[in-house]
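Question: does this match?
>
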Amino acid sequence: MKYNFKHISTLVLLAMMVFGTGCKKFLEETDPSNLTPDTYYTIPEHAEAALAAAYAQTRFIGSGAGIFVANFSMLEVVTGTAKTETGQNSDLNNLIGLQYNGDNLLVRNWWNGLYSVIAQTNLVLERVPAITPMDETRKAQILGEARFLRAWAYFYLVRLYGDVPLITKPQTTESEDFLPTRKPIEEGYALIVDDLTQAEAAGLPWLDASGRASRAAVKSLLSKVYLTMAGQPLNKGTEYYRLAADAAKDVIDNSGATLFASYADLHSLAQENKGEHIFQIQYLATVAGNPMQQLLLPNFKNVSAYSDEVGSTVPTAQFYNSYEPNDLRAKDREGFFYTSYYDGGDGALKALNAPYIFKHFDVVANGTAGTKGTTQADLNWPQIRYADVLLVYAEAQNRADGSPNTQAYEALNSIRRRAQIPVLSGLSQTQFEEAVWRERWHELCYEGVTWFDMVRLRKAYNEATNGFDDFVGHRFPDNPTIVLAEKHLLFPLPTAEMRNNPNLTPQNPGY
């Protein structure tokens, strides 16, 4: 991977175009004129804007990846729980068929997008400390937020690609490590934990309704990191299950985060960055609108105000049918799916004869009964949800102590009660663990979580048996000819990056 000074200065200039302080989601535009790298990082406003540019870079997840697909799709279609209704994007088709390599555009976009976040946070961490005068409390918070975002990016990188370069300083062509080597995955996790530990001590509020990183976001991400370290490939075991449980419990006991009473709140503009939403990628139509609405709609079935309805990433029928009887999450337009919608977005209700994803559905943009859609999507994209924290605690506590305690049962059953399905009790350690895994599959679907559960557990959910297969050898129920192999535990490094930097060799096994 290569960064030059022009690329970095472009990111700096981009900072003044988004995320003004004090407005909705701190996304209002400001004047970018008269800025150069030499005059930057001299006043507190520059620190705020530079940090805002780092937040802006997280939106690569929703950026385009060729015709009819965005980058978020990569983590869904490889799970076997999602498919496409359009076959016109070869990169997406290759991911669905598990036939991808380092030339895949989505594989390359994830790499480049995550390192763009890292490049901007490195600038903040390098340059902001020297800004004087500046309120020291806010300076510490800015640095904590930057460390959170850098950890967020590296956590994706080590799970996707394994050993990766660990770049912690701004890069120029004169940098000693301009062509960095890959570092062992354990060093990557050490950097992530260190960043999050420092972010935790940065004086951030427990929650932040503006959409900035909060202490709850930091501790929640730390709990997910420890849970992953406890499992594959590091296999750190009981000690790290305990660390994961403790971090999640701190959020449960002290943050004030809570489950929404209604699933509708998960995709309500009024509830963004509140309650259950601990950390989200921010969108605001007047600056950077959510580009994923058309992609998630049924393929040209006229159920919205949008003229383009793509059907790029939709649920498989097998996964939709695997929910327990009467599970509210599978109820049409009340849970996570819809099987009918309004003609044109605001007309007569009509059946669609297949399930589609409702948990990310922007009612304002698409329309609803009697109300035309605006086609302007402000809806944020979830990254850390309180339901995930509850399930991290339940799984980690059970593994750390050898059996589930009362609070672990309550964490699991609170999610089941909201779904209006029977609560559980009297389970063995193994039975409880598998119950938590099933809940993770059904609660956190289509949020970029399932694939990483499959990798850390080396397991895949079998919709037909309601049990779990070994990762290697698992066949996708929608197409049994597609079979997970050992090589799929990691994605390949992008071919273009390996050509630019010969120090990235060797390629991941199997590619």
